[in-house]
Every structure is written in C-alpha cells, then in structure tokens.
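Lab manual, section 2.4: Encoding a predicted structure.

Procedure: take the sequence of the chain (277 residues), apply the prediction step described in section 2.3, and record the output as structure tokens. A sample record is shown.
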Amino acid sequence: MSQFAFIGKFMGMAMRGGHVLNLDLPPAIWRKIVGMPLTRADIADINTLTFKILEQYANPNLDEAAFSELPTQRFVTLSSDGREVELLPGGGSMTVTFASRDEYVRLETHYRLHEFDVAVAQIRKGLGAIVPVHLLSLFTASEVETLICGAREVDVEFLKRNTEYQRLRPTDQHVKFFWTVLEEMSQKERQMFVRFVSGQSRLWSDEKDFLMKFKLMPSQVDNDQILPVSHTCFFSLELPRYSSKQVMREKLMYSIVNCTAIDADTVADNLDWNAEE
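Recorded output:
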C-alpha cells in the first residue's frame, strides 16, 4: 500500500512541477482518483470480456432460450491480478442460472467497480501530501490525467511549434520529409516516436511546460543506409539527409519500433561485477 501512496506523491510532484509521467491507466481509475462515481459501462475500460458478458446477462430482452446459448458462468470472477475470486461464499461451485442472472450481474459489477478502492485511496493519500486533494473534484478525470501524464494524442503542429533547429532549417528538404512522415503516422506510431526521442510516450499539454524544446540536428554521416540517432536526455534527434520521403519513413519506423531502450539502460545487465580490474 505504501507503494501506491508513493505513486500518488509522484503524481502530485508531476502536477506541481509540470513534469510528465509515463503512466497508462484506464479512464475508470482516473475517475476514481477525482471522486467520480462509476457505472457498469466503466468496466469496459478494465476488462472488455467481462463487460460483454455482463451486457449479455443484463439484457432486459433475454429469455431462457437465448440464455441457454450463452457461455456458462459460475459465481466467480478473475481479478485484475489473475486470482479467481468467489463473488459469494461457495460461488466456485454455483452455476449462474436464468433466475440468478441478475444477482450475478450485481455481484460481478460491484466487484469490478470497487476492486481498486483501497489502492486508489492510497494514491489519493499520497496526492494529498503534495496537492490539495479535495480540489480534484473541480477537475474532470481527463483533465487530471493530462496534468499528470500529458496529452494522450501527439499533436504534430504542437511539437513543431516547440522545436529548435540546430544547423538545420525548416525549409531543408529532408526536414520537410521528416514532418510529413510524422503527420502521416498513426497516433500509436507518433507515441513510439516520442518515446524514441524522449523516453516517454506523451508530450506536455501546455507550451509553457516545454522547458526543454525538441531539437533537430544534422547527422554526422549522410546516406540512406544509416539510422537517425536520438538523445533522450536532451530530447533531440540527429536527422540524416535521406534522399526521399520513403527512405525517411523506413528508417524512422525501424528506429522507433526496434530501438526502444533508453541510452545504456541495459548495459549493467552485461557487466561482471565480480571480475577483477
């Protein structure tokens, strides 16, 4: 539980300091953090299969014939950490019937909506050590998530406005190739690119929080065989002068898909700490 409180303190520090945390929590958790009530629809954010089953069982037009075609369920559920939990005493040996389906829906829904109550309470406790937690109710869940984790979507124009060019010009042909390729990427690919150049998958949501601008720099070598080089500590990219947009896309995509480790973060794994110098 102390670790959840620590996460809450970390969130508070991010809010106060304008930092971005690389957290990807379901919307239902953010709603709990700000104190918003949850409904059965929120279960879809946590477990889509469970939500689908509940929707089938809760269908007011469901008759016994249609019910018999549904997958058989017991009064148990699989928790988010993989444990089988009985929804009522002896639920592991009790099959859900047409007559008891409403009780199953009620119990399963209650468990899913309150599974994280203790953990979220500790997160809020940690948050309260840094920020006035009672004021969180003034924000929506998505606003608090953005304050702590940055924007979910990577806005290319926003990034472009916060880019510095070192020994390059925005009018250079390969720089134009670069921005065009980025604009053509999907949101997931853009997040992978941001991770490649910064170590995190989201950008700040406010320009004033860009204490370190994104930097585009020339490559030490220019040909179509080499890859771009990122410096995550400096939020920068060495961009070769590729001959075409297609080559730019191929090299960028290879880099963001295959080069996901932050500089030297696995070097220690290969060291023999007991070896003599």
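Check your result against the sample. Residues 25 and 221 are 41 Å apart (CA to CA).
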